[in-house]
Known about the structure:
This protein has about 450 residues and is α/β, with parallel strands linked by helices. The chain folds into 2 domains: about 5-140, P-loop containing nucleotide triphosphate hydrolases (Rossmann fold, 3-Layer(aba) Sandwich), CATH 3.40.50.300; about 185-450, Rossmann fold (3-Layer(aba) Sandwich), CATH 3.40.50. About 40% of the residues lie in helices and about 15% in strands. It is built from 17 helices and 15 strands. The chain has helices spanning about 5-15, 30-40, 60-70, 80-85, 95-100, 120-130, 160-170, 195, 210, 225-235, 250-255, 265-275, 300-310, 350-355, 380-395, 405-415, 430-450, and strands at about 20-25, 50, 75-80, 105-110, 135, 185-190, 255-260, 285, 320, 335-340, 365, 370, 370-375, 415-420, 425. It has an 8-stranded mixed sheet, with helices on both faces. Helix 14 crosses helix 15, helix 15 (about 380-395) packs across helix 16 and helix 15 (about 380-395) crosses helix 17.
Amino acid sequence: MRFGKTLTALQVIKECDIRRTLILTHRPVVDKGWFEDYEKIFYDRPEFLYGSKNYGASLNGCEQVFANSATGSYIYFASIQDMRGSELVGGKFAKNEEIFNINWDLIIIDEAHEGTQTELGKAVLSKCRKENTRVLHLSGTPFNLMDDFKEDEIYTWDYVMEQRAKAEWDKIHQGDPNPYSVLPKLSIYTYNLGKLYPEYADADIAFNFREFFRVDKEGYFIHEANIKQFLDLLTKEDTDSNYPYSTEEYRQNFRHSLWMIPGVKEAKALSKLLQEHPVFSQFAIANVAGDGDEEEEEKEALKKVEKAIGPNPEDSYSITLSCGRLTTGVSVKPWTACFMLSGSFNTAASTYMQTIFRVQTPAVIGGKQKEECFVFDFAPDRTLKVIAETAKISSKAGKTTNNDREILGEFLNFCPIIGFEGSQMKVYNTEKMLGQLKKAYIERVVKNGFEDS
């Protein structure tokens, strides 16, 4: 989740002089990021190559350097999707035999929470792994992996650790430049759309985004009037308003944002309404959700976003609409806000956290350091549940001596959650948050019966 996993892994390879490294990932679009980080770490090691289908050397070129020099080493990047189509693991195509046959010293599974837990994913890793191969799993949200490892096999560096280090640096290292100063602080703002539109409550008494944004067969919103009203609410000019585009100052702060939408058709319909809106028509709209059966590669989606932002992000405005693309393994530096307009009370914490941390990428825009970034969630109970789950998971990652409430309190210290209902503002502390969450669970049990999980 942009906490330096690739740079750290590459530094390990360099310091340990690991000669053959294979990077496997379910997200081929991160190839570029790995290559760029490789150039930062191995700039002084010309005998150390990087290879992939898109960047650096070919696999044959890498192997030649390895064979012809005692110090010749390389890192090769491969897509799990491509690998699992190989005949050697039950696929239909005669390909990738060379990758499977090489005696790898180290295999790095990037974004290890994705695509590696299936039978095909496990088959790819098993076939690549030899007797002495070491395996490093990298993940910003390892919620589905924690039980597979012992505590001494897990190393954690997370948002709270980074922000704590940033806050304490000057006290401990007086006079030295703070290496953490470039890392933006994240804040989460919640708005209860369920109070404004109670007719869209789902079976969990949560706001039903899919119903709110539902489209007909022709691709038009069924509740178009409500959606237009919602867009007007976001932009209504009012110095007392707490909505993200209600003042010129807010619009300057949120020039470039990521909006999560329930589906492809919904994103297409919203794109049209935004382009017709008196305020949002000033924004370039990058719809990367796709169009019907047309599947857009992530790298093409990234190009579309970069085109919308343009070469001078300090002078432009853009909104990216997504229903999943560009929410993991990709950095769009000008993004300063994420709008959560999809999902439900039961949204997976891993999906949620991967998505919101897209906007925390460090950046210098127009000569100014990005110091803050924001999440706007319109389903407050969902926000509280995910953050509580995240704090609890963190306690398993080498922090078992800490109590969940203390961990949650520290998270809220560095990532405040501010709830708005009308003009009323509520800053959550641990007790308020757990109290609201308990209330939400009780409401669900009362409505759904005691079999509710």
